[in-house]
Each structure stands twice: as structure tokens, then as C-alpha cells.
Design a protein that fits this description.
By secondary structure, the chain is of the alpha+beta class. It has one domain: 2-Layer Sandwich (HIT family, subunit A). Helices cover 30% and strands 18% of the residues. The chain contains three helices and five strands. Strand 1 and strand 2 form a beta hairpin. The longest helix is centred in the middle third of the chain and has 22 residues. It is globular. The model has no long low-confidence stretch (mean pLDDT 91). It binds adenosine monophosphate and zinc ion.
Length: 139
């Protein structure tokens, strides 16, 4: 279902123009307006899902192969050395547009540092306890 107030619904369904890289019945892939690197692409489902927690599973199974295809095209078409897949869920995770989207971000030799974090420390006990909490909450 499309949501009336969602800008990515409008872009994905062609009501607002975009620099479209790819389109099929389920998805439109567009260039990001404020790219982390040249060719930064967003894959948008045409139907509205707030984030990955309610993304339709059939679409979810299609989106990673599509990202791989676009990433391969970035390597051969733009000459990037690699690419990152990034997908934010919730404001706390940096999500700013509440319509599921998968970032495909080309990485060039000597390019900008992105998607980094400071490696933390854990103990075996902490990992054991944390893994149990997540496993117990899986539904
Ligand atoms: P996120 O932080 O994961 O929600 O990412 C939202 C992304 O959408 C950002 O990288 C924005 O630059 C990008 N963005 C926002 N509005 C538009 C738009 N109208 N067209 C293309 N990209 C957009
Ligand atoms: Zn939407």
C-alpha cells in the first residue's frame, strides 16, 4: 500500500521525478540527493513499509540480489572498488525517511571514510548474556 504523505512513496511510484537507476514492478532505485559518494543509490519498494521490521518477506528476498546487481553495475559502470549496503531502522539508527530503503554506496580508492565505528570490548559472559536475550526474544 502507498502512503499519501510519504515522499518515497511518491518518488517510487513516479509521482515525483528522480534520477532513476532501475525500475521494475516492485522497486525503483534512485540516486540519493545528498550522496556519500558519486553514484550513492537508494532502493525503494513501491509499496510503503516503515522499515525492515515490517517489510514484506518476498520483497525482502528480492532486495539483496537487486542491491548486488546494482553494486556490480557501479563497479563496471562507475569504476568504484567496492560498495557498502546500509539500511537504517528508526530515528536512533539515523533513519530520516520512514519508508524502507536500502542504501548502495560505492566506495572508491582513497574515497571518504563512511560506515565506521569504534570497535568496543566485550567479555565472554557479556556475549553469552546478550546473545541469550536476543535469542529469547526472537519470534
Ligand atoms: P536514511 O537516513 O537512511 O533515512 O536516508 C535517507 C536518505 O534519503 C538520505 O541519504 C537523503 O539524502 C536521501 N533523500 C532524502 N530525500 C530525498 C529525495 N527527495 N531524493 C533522493 N534522496 C533523498
Ligand atoms: Zn512510503
Amino acid at each position: 500500500m502507498k502512503s499519501d504523505n510519504c515522499i518515497f512513496c511518491k518518488i517510487a511510484n513516479g509521482e515525483i521525478p528522480s534520477s532513476t537507476v532501475y525500475e521494475d514492478n516492485d522497486f525503483r532505485a534512485i540516486l540519493d540527493l545528498s550522496p556519500a559518494a558519486k553514484g550513492h543509490t537508494l532502493i525503494l519498494p513501491k509499496a510503503h513499509f516503515d522499515d525492515v521490521t515490517n517489510l514484506d518477506e518476498t520483497l525482502g528476498a528480492k532486495v539483496v540480489p537487486l542491491a548486488a546487481r546494482i553494486g556490480r553495475a557501479m563497479k563496471s559502470g562507475l569504476g568504484c572498488a567496492g560498495f557498502n549496503l546500509v539500511q537504517n531502522n528508526g530515528v536512533a539508527a539515523g533513519q530520516t525517511v520512514m519508508h524502507f530503503h536500502l542504501h548502495v554506496i560505492p566506495r572508491y580508492e582513497g574515497g571518504p571514510e563512511i560506515v565506521t565505528w569504534t570497535p568496543g570490548e566485550t567479555t565472554a559472559e557479556d556475549r553469552e548474556e546478550t546473545a541469550k536475550k536476543i535469542a529469547a526474544a526472537l519470534i
